[in-house]
Amino acid sequence: MSTTNKFTKVSEWVNAGAMSTGLLLLEGQTGESAKAVEFPATRFNSYGNPYRGKCWMPKSQLKKVTNDFYQDTIGAIMWLAPAWLVSAKKNEGYDLADGTE
């Protein structure tokens, strides 16, 4: 993913325009494999009731960055993901914004 190769820290992403870069910041990683990263997410069953789920995203589409911007999690590892990938996961039924509730 060539558009994110220039970012190594969250502050660099913020200075470049944050979400206007077409990348979204994900945090709260709960798992990792050789090819994917797992994030908590809210899913909905067939009746529309929410439950906690897991959303796997391919590492080939993500960029690992270090948080040096948000004070409550300084030094934490976060991930930049293209907006289209987050949108595709939302269309699959994952709500990444509410995964940590």
Which bin fits the share of residues in helices? 10-25%
Number of strands: 6
- Protein structure class: alpha+beta
Into which percentage range does the β-strand content fall? 25-35%
Enumerate how many helices there are, as a single number.
2
First and last CA, distance: 30 Å
Report the biggest beta sheet as strand number plus sense, adding barrel if it closes.
3 strands, antiparallel
Q: How would the global form be characterised?
A: globular
Average pLDDT metric: 87
Compact description:
This protein has helices spanning 10-15, 83-91; strands at residues 23-26, 31-32, 36-44, 50-58, 63-66, 77-82.
Identify the notable features of this structure and list them briefly.
three-stranded antiparallel β-sheet, alpha+beta
